[in-house]
Amino acid sequence: MKASALVLAAAAFWAVTATIVVIFLLGDDTPDCTPAPTTGSGSSVLVADAQPAPGPAVPFGTKVWPVEPGKYVISDVFGARGGTHMGVDLAAPEGTPIYAAMDGVVRESGPASGFGDWIVIDSNDNGAPVGTVYGHMYESGLLVHAGDPVKAGQQIATVGTNGQSTGPHLHFEVYVDGGRLTGGRAIDPVPWLNGASTPSSGGGAPAAPAPVCASTPGGGGDNLQPGKVPPDFEPWYRKAGALCPQISSSLLAAQGRQEGGWSPDGGANVTALSSTGAQGPAQFMPGTWSSWGTPVDDQGNPSGPPGTGDVHKPSDAIMAQGRFMCHIASAIDGWIAEGKVTWSGDRRVLYLAGYNAGEGAVLASGGFPTGHSDYEVQTRPYADNILAMEPEYRALA
Ligand SMILES: [Zn+2]
Q1: Domain check: are 11 and 160 in the same one?
Q2: Distance 172 CA to ligand 1 centre (A)
Q3: DSSP state at residue 197
Q4: Domain shared by 196 and 218, yes or no
Q5: Secondary element (H or E) of residue 314
Q6: Which of 167, 209, 256, 273 is the most buried if burial means most Cβ atoms within 10 Å?
């Protein structure tokens, strides 16, 4: 592993890696290694939706996925586009059912600037006002009217691509401390949906718990689906994905997407500089870059000493990201073998936690980092969201 030659400047390494930060704080409890459970065929879901089947009473505050898990891919995340994207985009074919995420009352149902047609629902989450917004539907896809009461899991619309939209998807927003039109504050919908029920259950049954992935799906290697990242990034994710068996190019690409260094429309935001000082496509902090950043040759091999590359250049940044991730994976695998870290699930969760929080935090906790709220509100969603996106970058088998 080429990274081994670069571990020389490791003294300050754990300290500085702890300062790597992410721009977006995201989460998703959908594991990438298992198809989401679906109950019944698509058609039975459609039939059941207009009037959800009578089932167990929906507990107060129950949340339901607005699109059935397994029927969408996350095509853009909360906070994207320079912080202006106030929701999550769930890409799904036109006509896919959209469900009310909570019991509530429809506040708006009709045209809205940029949204095509939208639906705004005001809800009450165990005493706290909450709002949900559903966008890009066509008028013909609206199944509820302003003033209608709705139940969690009730179909309210179908997916469209109306308004400022480049393809069929549900744009879904969540507001807390008020609704969308009543002074609420937008939050990342994905962690909010953590533990939500599947709509086909009628909202009464919790979604199946995330199965444990015992292996490392995808493994390492160049498994990148062509055309999924900007052209000047693609060869480097391919080369970096070949550095070690634990870290694939699809994982690195999903991580790059999460870090916000480029956007899926091909716009490479290589000069991204977060408020915390993280830089470039892999969001390296300067201290970490001084240990891991190097210029690279055409093959991606380091061609200079650590700290001398260009953190904004896709080649240098992505190869450093790959070397760093491989180093973390190797260290964590060693700790697991030695019994210092206990983990029976997908090890990529720990590798990503090591990138986000510092591998020392994994070692100190003997597993996923604990003992600081940042690990719950930032590191865990960071890892979960990358693993949720990773299959989207994987070449079709
Ligand atoms: Zn959107």
Answers
A1: no
A2: 7
A3: B
A4: no
A5: helix 314-338
A6: 256
Cα 294 to ligand 1 centroid, rounded to whole Å: 36
Same domain assignment for residues 149 and 190 = yes
- Total number of domains constituting the chain: 2
Strand partners, 296: 302
Residue 31 lies in a domain: no
What angle is formed at CA 170 by the lines to CA 166 and CA 176, rounded to 5 degrees? 125
Residue 206 placed within a domain = no
- What's the 156 CA to ligand 1 centre distance in angstroms? 18
* Predicted structure pTM score: 0.48
pLDDT surpasses 60 at 218: no
Q: How far apart are CA 35 and CA 74, in angstroms?
A: 15
* CA of residue 229 to ligand 1 center, whole Å: 19
Whether residue 120 is found in the same domain as residue 196:
yes
Rounded to an integer, what distance in angstroms lies between the CA atom of residue 135 and that of residue 150? 17
Cα–Cα dist 224/395, whole Å: 5
Give yes or no: residues 94 and 222 share one domain.
Answer: no
Residues in Cβ contact with 59 at an 8 Å cutoff, skipping those fewer than 6 apart: none
Spacing, Cα 296 to ligand 1 middle (Å): 36
How far does residue 82's CA lie from ligand 1's centre (Å)? 13
Q: Which residues of 179-202 are buried (b: 16+ CB within 10 A; e: fewer)?
A: bbeeebebbbbbbbbbebbbbbbb
Does 94 share its domain with 21?
no
Of the candidate ranges 262-266, 287-291, 362-366, the one whose mean pLDDT is the lowest = 262-266
The CATH code of the domain that includes 323 is 1.10.530
- Look at 310 and 59; give whichever has higher pLDDT: 310
pLDDT averaged over every residue in the chain: 78
CB-CB neighbours of 151 under 10 Å = 18
**Contact of 246 with 58, CB cutoff 8 Å:** no
Letter string b/e over residues 154-167, b meaning 16 or more CB atoms within 10 A of that residue's CB = bbbbbbbbbbebee
Ligand 1 center to 103 CA (angstroms): 23
Structural domain span for residue 152: 42-201
